[in-house]
Amino acid sequence: MAETSTRLAGVRQAPREYVWIARMWVRSSLAYPTSFWILTVSSALITLLDFVGLALMFHTVPALGGFSLQEIALLYGASGIGIGVADLVIGSVEQIGAYVRTGGLDSMLTRPVPLLVQVCADRFAIRRLGRISQAVVVFVYGAWWVDWTPAKVGLAVLMLVSACLIFFSLFVTFSCIQFWTLDSTEFANAFTYGGNTMTQYPMTIFPREVLKGLTFLLPIAFVNWYPCLYLLDRPDPFGMPSWFAVLSPLVAVLTVAVAGLAWRTGVRHYTSTGS
Amino acid sequence: MLYAAVAARSFRRFSTYRTATLAGIFTNSVFGVIYSYAYLALWHQRPDAGGYDATDAVTYVWIGQALLMTVALWGGGTTDDLAERIRTGDVAIDLYRPVGLIGWYLAGDLGRAAYHVLTRGVVPTVLGLLLFQIALPADAAAALGFVVSLVLAVVTSFAIRFLVACSAFWLLDQTGVRMLSGVLAIFMSGMTLPLVIFPEPLRSIALALPWASYLQTPADIWLGQRTGFGILTGLAVQALWIGVLLALCQVVLDAATRKVVVQGG
């Protein structure tokens, strides 16, 4: 009993501890102000130019995979907000291999703050707000053309929250591989940033097998594709059931559970490098 | 001889990160597949966009993935070591060496590029061949031209990254400029979208800038969009930019060594 209540207290304190560490890193990043501002601008510019690339494609063709630029903006914005928020809050988990290699994880394990909080808050980069704001602008542009109803507003909110959680889980799950293979940061990128890039396009450009994989194996299609089909009043081009649109929150909870499991297994497996 | 030794050791140094290489190849391939489908969707509707056919477009994607690390589009390579040594002050030792600073780091970077082209260049290309039947250079001139153009691409990218690293002499920390430069390189090199399908006048401007060297020029030689004299002019423009950029590197380096007090000493 006593153990449970201390653990609960620990969980309740976690957000505050996270904010403390994050604030420290914000202060430290301002130590090189020129670099900080250039980084913030470039972080917005990366995704902006990414979208300019998409828009330039539409200079050549009127639709991509049967979707207009406005519709793709909705997909793009939702996915961008999802990965942007996840990256801001826990993106540093990508560096877990470096902590294992340098032995930094050992000192973190001795501190009275949950390990995941420490790892995620480490090198907290407020500049990543640049990327989120750009995604919000694109999302608003896409949302401008949607015929909104109360149900659609509700679904859109659920979609954005689920998108954040699914990307959160992708970051954590695939970073855990680094507990076994140290310098494989880029492997996770294929799923996090790769998933982001994939969901920027309508799934109709991919073959049916790819969509199935992204629905049942690695449920990235629930980040934006299924909810957006509902928002855009489109029948599913692949003939998937229409109630998939409301499944995103459930999928998000499932992926978070998998991520939690991966994290626990990873930490249990961890043996110090001894340095 | 000395430079060859530096390059060889740099090659070996980068070849120690085996899992990282494997993970990188996997990621390059995933992005290759995504972009291939995106481009196929576009070229399906406009089968002649930018003078490419669908096969050319997909080939372009896989050349891009193969060159991403080789040309160090995002930054990185030996210039990162230089920037770190400027930040810590260790660059003072480099400046004492009886070897030119630019040549030393360029040799190291060419060694790195050689390793990356053999691993992260070749494997995605083979995968592209298997998955999407990409086009191979049509004749020996195209193949040879591509190789020369690729070397020039690495040197161009090195010169720009060297300038970025030198910003640390004034800013102490290169990360901001490095990222900005990477963002520009990704877009202006045609990695986001082939420069040939940019609308005018953006297309002509982008094609004249040094970043076109990174991907568009080598790719066009590979694809046979440039043949005969076209190959030579492409290589000449690349060489011209290298001349300008390396001269600029020397000017900046001279200014830095004259005016800046090295940290720690």
Report on this model:
- The complex is a heterodimer of chains A (275) and B (265).
- With 275 residues, chain A is mainly alpha-helical.
- Chain A has helices at 2-29, 33-60, 69-90, 96-102, 104-110, 115-121, 129-143, 150-175, 185-200, 208-217, 221-231, 248-269.
- Chain A starts with a helix and ends in a 6-residue tail after the last helix.
- The relative contact order of chain A is 0.14.
- The mean pLDDT of chain A is 86.
- With 265 residues, chain B is an all-alpha fold.
- Chain B is 75% helix and 0% strand.
- The longest helix of chain B has 32 residues, at 101-132.
The biggest sheet of chain A amounts to: none
How many H/I helical runs of chain A?
A: 12
Task: Give the total of domains of chain A.
Answer: 1
Provide the β-strand percentage band of chain A. under 5%
The amount of helix of chain B comes to over 70%
Rg estimate of chain A, integer Å: 20 Å
Strand content of chain B: under 5%
Rg of Cα set of chain B: 19 Å
Q: What is the distance, rounded to the nearest whole angstrom, between the alpha carbons of the first and last residues of chain B?
A: 32 Å
Task: Detail the topology: elements first, then pairings.
The complex is a heterodimer of chains A (275) and B (265).
Chain A: H1 2-29, H2 33-60, H3 69-90, H4 96-102, H5 104-110, H6 115-121, H7 129-143, H8 150-175, H9 185-200, H10 208-217, H11 221-231, H12 248-269
Helix pairs in contact in A: 1-6, 2-3, 2-7, 3-7, 3-8, 3-9, 3-11, 8-9, 8-11, 8-12
Chain B: H1 2-14, H2 18-45, H3 54-70, H4 78-88, H5 91-96, H6 101-132, H7 140-166, H8 168-171, H9 175-188, H10 202-208, H11 216-223, H12 229-259
Helix pairs in contact in B: 1-6, 2-3, 2-6, 3-6, 4-7, 6-7, 7-11, 7-12
